[in-house]
Design a protein that fits this description.
With 146 residues, the chain is mostly beta strands. The chain has helices at 3-16, 37-40, and strands spanning 28-29, 42-46, 63-66, 71-74, 90-99, 102-109, 115-123, 126-132, 141-145.
């Protein structure tokens, strides 16, 4: 009689962990996304949901700008990827790279010599840039929308 309970428990855990059912929105393309310079150039704004995982400032103020000469600039965000919003300006160079069938935007920061990768996802015709603050299954992420 105990055997069916173990099977049920295993199934429940399987359905609720590690993207067993795929990404939250099944329409988001995460692998083999075709992206080029023209798709990235411009101004990207951090979505409101992302502010929940950052410092206590809950404003709509983080903007990431990609230029055609492969320079980027980000406002109020010198330590953004360390979960802190501040008045610093970050700048550096960027490039499109591929890693494990996923396109990424590699940010090379001038002031700290640190690099960060943003995953490039696509929902219909719109691109999204994601940075996971911890395990992707936790949902803690920063997302930029154009």
């Amino acid at each position: 009689m105990k055997r069916p309970y173990w099977i049920l428990l295993i199934l429940i855990l399987g359905f609720t962990s590690c993207h067993f059912l795929g990404p939250i929105d099944g329409n988001i393309e995460t692998k083999n996304v075709q992206v080029n310079l023209k798709d990235i150039i411009g101004t990207w704004k951090m979505d409101k949901f992302s502010y929940e995982y950052l410092s206590e400032i809950k404003t709509d103020s983080i903007i990431l700008t990609f230029k055609s000469d492969y320079i980027f600039e980000m406002n109020n965000s010198q330590n953004l990827f360390d979960r802190e919003i501040n008045n610093g300006i970050s700048a550096g160079t960027w490039e499109i790279i591929e890693q494990y069938d996923t396109k990424k935007i590699k940010l090379n920061f001038d002031d700290t010599k640190i690099t960060k990768n943003l995953d490039v996802y696509k929902l219909k015709k719109d691109y999204q840039l994601w940075y996971f603050l911890s395990d992707p299954d936790s949902g803690e992420r920063i997302r930029f929308l154009k």
